[in-house]
């Protein structure tokens, strides 16, 4: 870091003394003031100093950065988001999460609302709400869904805070956070609030990027793009579980690997040491199914996939 002096404080355990640098360059850090560090007490990895700016998300800064740094057109990102929305719905059944026609589901930080739209389409009588801080993103999402013949979910512009939790205590059958937890300055607090609004027999479902994705070790370019100014935290399987238990020590926690991108994207990073660009591989076909299925299964089993999927439930 250059210039300014900052005092370290771990976002998870509050340790203020011991940390180890793990990444010296952060994508998007124009001033060179941030590094990524590992806490010497709980082993959590985070930006130092952490940065969180709601205005960045209001202006759709995250997606703009993907277009800029990866070369992927916004239209492709929208198409991939619809694919991921369907896959996320299908994953509930794989993980024993009960879906019903009259359920109440809240998607926190739901962005454009594509997952909410997929759930509203699949369960027209359910109450599906997307809680999103950016008015701009909700408006863009509503237009995109209308163009694709999808009925938008209910949008509520705002954040999950204590007031929201007090007004909705024990209301929702399912609460979801898809790639949200890594962005916020208080992951423990956010998980705690989320568990407050989950019904006694409900579930909180969280997906985050995986710090132990083996592509980080195999491609320097991928590693350099994995540490970015908008990701405040970087969770390994162990630190994600420990964060959940700090939020609710009595919770039942299940942790799974989940691989989003396809094997050709993986090979491209390793062989060419750069992103695929305009059309990153998500694999929706059948031409290499046996290879893709085996590779995905192994990465998920070993928890070296590009994402982690966590389910939190109240104790029985």
Descriptive report:
The structure is a single chain. The protein folds into two domains: 1-51, no CATH class; 55-313, Vaccinia Virus protein VP39 (Rossmann fold), CATH 3.40.50. The chain is built from twelve helices and eleven strands. The chain has helices at residues 54-58, 61-70, 74-94, 114-122, 135-147, 162-167, 187-196, 215-218, 220-226, 237-247, 263-272, 289-301; strands at residues 19-23, 35-39, 45-48, 104-108, 127-132, 154-157, 172-178, 198-209, 233-234, 252-258, 307-313. The strands form two sheets. Strands 6-5-4-7-8-11-10 form a seven-stranded mixed beta sheet, sandwiched between helices. It has a four-stranded antiparallel beta sheet with strand order 1-2-3-9, with no helix packed on it. Strand 5 (127-132), helix 5 (135-147) and strand 6 form a beta-alpha-beta unit. The radius of gyration is 19 Å and the shape is globular.
Q: What is the element layout, followed by pairings?
A:
Elements: E1 19-23, E2 35-39, E3 45-48, H1 54-58, H2 61-70, H3 74-94, E4 104-108, H4 114-122, E5 127-132, H5 135-147, E6 154-157, H6 162-167, E7 172-178, H7 187-196, E8 198-209, H8 215-218, H9 220-226, E9 233-234, H10 237-247, E10 252-258, H11 263-272, H12 289-301, E11 307-313
Parallel strand pairs: 4-5, 4-7, 5-6, 7-8
Antiparallel strand pairs: 1-2, 2-3, 3-9, 8-11, 10-11
Helix pairs in contact: 3-4, 7-10
């Amino acid at each position: 870091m250059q210039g300014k002096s900052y005092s370290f404080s771990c976002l998870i355990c509050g340790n203020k003394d011991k940390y180890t640098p793990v990444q010296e360059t952060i994508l998007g850090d124009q001033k060179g003031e941030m590094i990524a560090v590992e806490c010497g007490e709980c082993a959590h990895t985070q930006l130092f100093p952490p940065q969180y700016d709601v205005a960045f998300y209001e202006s759709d800064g995250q997606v703009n950065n993907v277009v800029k740094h990866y070369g992927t057109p916004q239209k492709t990102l929208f198409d991939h988001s619809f694919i991921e929305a369907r896959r996320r719905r299908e994953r509930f059944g794989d993980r024993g999460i009960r879906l019903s026609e009259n359920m109440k589901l809240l998607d926190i930080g739901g962005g454009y609302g594509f997952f909410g739209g997929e759930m509203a389409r699949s369960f027209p009588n359910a109450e599906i709400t997307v809680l999103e801080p950016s008015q701009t993103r909700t408006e863009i999402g509503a237009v995109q869904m209308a163009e694709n013949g999808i009925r938008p979910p209910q949008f509520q512009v705002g954040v999950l805070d204590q007031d929201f939790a007090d007004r909705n205590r024990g209301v929702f059958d399912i609460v979801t956070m898809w790639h949200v937890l890594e962005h916020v300055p208080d992951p423990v607090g956010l998980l705690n609030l989320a568990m407050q609004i989950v019904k006694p027999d409900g579930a909180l479902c969280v997906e985050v990027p995986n710090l132990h994705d083996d592509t980080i070790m195999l491609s320097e370019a991928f590693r350099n793009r994995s540490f970015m100014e908008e990701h405040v935290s970087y969770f390994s399987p162990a630190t994600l579980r420990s964060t959940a238990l700090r939020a609710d020590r009595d919770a039942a926690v299940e942790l799974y690997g989940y691989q989003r991108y396809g094997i050709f994207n993986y090979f491209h990073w390793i062989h060419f040491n750069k992103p695929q660009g305009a059309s990153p591989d998500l694999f929706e076909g059948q031409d290499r199914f046996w290879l893709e299925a085996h590779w995905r299964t192994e990465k998920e089993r070993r928890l070296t996939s590009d994402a982690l999927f966590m389910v939190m439930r109240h104790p029985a």
